[in-house]
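Backbone-to-sequence.
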């Protein structure tokens, strides 16, 4: 009889602790790692990992699978990128708690903030829940990875305050007390924490700001106090930091009164390093004062995809575009190649769409690039549409049109609008290597027609660990950050490390050939909804709870992942 369920033999093990890579075997039994080193004995299955990298499964703490988790067993595209645990319910948006007559409002909120088609949400969501605990039950079905969620402030505000909450009126003391009670109740039922949004970039599909945008400090501190009484849970926030002093002081108060960890989005300012330097200094001071505050930072520019089948394209406000917008792709391409229509389209160029995230940028050709077959996320300035058009003797508008017509009208342009103001990722490197940040913000499952950043974990290893010409970062550090550190930031202490007693979530990676593929369009959401997906090469084996879920990027058919209910303790002796 075999002593182990699985042994991965002779791989280059990077265990997630930051320790140097070493050649070792990894043994797994009953869903946990039982040995790392020279493993004797046999197993029901052995994987030869000689020449390959063996690492813990990636933990992605900033996704938006809130709807998809109720109808889908596969959290793609994240599961194509070595991710074995996702956390959603971020940015204050989600689907519980909810009154039955508020379903449409929560769909409009998610559709607007996270660019998930309303038709897909209406078709896919079966509802059947009101409380947060009932929503958790609806998510608790077999999956290709573990999932966890948080109580969203937007849903909570609407549930307690009704139209007053949706209209961003101030909460009363009774409102705050009830929101605090329900947030704590949701965490007791299994949520990892509570999230909110305080950015004007987030709007509903009807163009309204989110219900949480202007919530007073008293409201958030009151909710934090109630959560703290339960002794569990974390906080996640995104903010414009219009008044940094007041905003960060509120963060500190939430953290202090609750005794719970808090993390927030931090990105490089396009104007000055002072912005993120100041926020990092504030985090350092908070840590020195005993407050567990962490920054969530992206691993590459957050960029908009533009294309004729995407949510955005440079011609979407052009009156001539309206003549072809509803045509099938092949018919649209033929129509746009008609010389008369092409001339009229170019002559009428101009206009933005302020109602959509990124809609004000659709003609920024000076910071727009072709995505290409092999995406590179730190492109040089001479590769912009403007510079390439100059070399071709064309206007940027005409050059962009020709690029978008390639590949049957499915080619895409890419516009890095956050974290790339200086035309390089030096600021991102500074954020990634800071003592009190974690890689995050992939938004897996969201922005399905404009952004495809669920591939962040692959970019983290490929670009920063191998391909960047200078300023590369040690793999041991990168894997610790994307595995152990992200897991710890949300209270999941049982994973992210390859050591005896830890959860057997892991990847076997052909590191030399690891790469993100070009984004592609699929029409596989409910109601035939469209989304942009991105696969990867190089993941030889992905294992969740000791069971292989993907082999060379293909589904094995097994679904060992489940809903995580609440924080998870570290293994005994860890």
């Amino acid at each position: 009889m075999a002593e182990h369920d699985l042994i991965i033999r002779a791989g280059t093990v990077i265990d997630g602790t930051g320790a140097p890579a070493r050649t070792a075997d990894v043994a797994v039994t009953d869903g946990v790692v039982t040995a790392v080193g020279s493993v004797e004995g046999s197993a029901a299955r052995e994987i030869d990992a000689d020449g390959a990298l063996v690492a813990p499964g990636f933990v992605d703490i900033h996704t938006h699978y809130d709807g998809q988790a109720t109808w889908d067993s596969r959290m793609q595209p994240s599961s194509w990128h070595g991710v074995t645990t996702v956390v959603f319910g971020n940015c204050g948006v989600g689907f519980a708690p909810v009154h039955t007559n508020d379903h449409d409002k929560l769909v409009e909120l998610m559709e607007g903030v996270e660019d998930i088609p309303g038709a897909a949400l209406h078709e896919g969501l079966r509802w059947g829940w009101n409380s947060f605990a009932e929503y958790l039950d609806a998510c608790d079905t077999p999956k290709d990875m573990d999932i966890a969620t948080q109580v969203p402030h937007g849903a909570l505000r609407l549930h307690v305050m009704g139209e007053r909450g949706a209209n961003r009126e101030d909460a009363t003391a009774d409102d705050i007390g009830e929101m605090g009670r329900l947030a704590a109740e949701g965490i007791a039922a299994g949520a990892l924490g509570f999230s909110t949004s305080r950015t004007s970039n987030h709007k509903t599909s009807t163009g309204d700001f989110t219900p949480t945008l202007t919530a007073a400090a008293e409201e958030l501190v009151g909710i934090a106090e109630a959560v703290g009484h339960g002794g569990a849970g974390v906080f996640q926030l995104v903010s414009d930091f219009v008044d940094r002093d007041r905003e960060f002081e509120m963060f500190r108060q939430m953290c202090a009164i609750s005794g719970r960890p808090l993390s927030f989005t931090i990105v490089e300012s396009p104007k000055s390093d002072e912005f993120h330097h100041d926020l990092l200094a504030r985090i350092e001071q908070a840590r020195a004062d005993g407050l567990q505050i962490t920054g969530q930072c992206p691993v590459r520019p957050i960029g908009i995809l533009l294309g004729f089948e995407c949510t955005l394209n440079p011609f979407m406000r052009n009156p001539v575009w309206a003549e072809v917008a509803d045509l099938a792709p092949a018919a649209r391409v033929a129509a746009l190649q008609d010389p008369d229509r092409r001339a009229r389209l170019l002559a009428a160029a101009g206009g933005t769409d302020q109602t959509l995230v990124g809609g004000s940028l659709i003609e920024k050709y000076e910071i727009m690039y072709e995505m290409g077959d092999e995406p590179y996320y730190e492109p040089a300035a001479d590769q912009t549409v403007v510079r390439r058009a100059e070399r071709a003797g064309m206007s940027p508008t005409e050059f962009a049109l020709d690029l978008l017509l390639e590949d049957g009208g499915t080619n895409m342009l890419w516009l890095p609008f956050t974290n790339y103001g200086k035309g390089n990722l030096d600021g991102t490197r500074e954020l990634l290597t800071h003592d009190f940040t974690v890689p995050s913000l992939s938004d897996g499952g969201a922005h399905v027609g404009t952004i495809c950043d669920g591939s962040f974990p692959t970019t983290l290893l490929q670009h920063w660990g191998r391909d960047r010409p200078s300023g590369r970062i040690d793999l041991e550090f990168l894997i610790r950050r994307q595995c152990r550190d992200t897991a710890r930031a949300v209270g999941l202490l049982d994973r992210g490390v390859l050591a005896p007693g830890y959860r057997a979530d892991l990847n076997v990676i052909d590191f030399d050939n690891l790469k993100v593929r070009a984004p592609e369009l699929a029409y596989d959401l409910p109601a035939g909804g469209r989304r942009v997906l991105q696969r990867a090469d190089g993941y030889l084996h992905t294992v969740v709870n000791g069971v292989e879920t993907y082999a060379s990027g293909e589904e094995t058919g097994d679904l060992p992942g489940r809903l995580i209910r609440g924080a998870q303790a570290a293994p005994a002796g860890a």
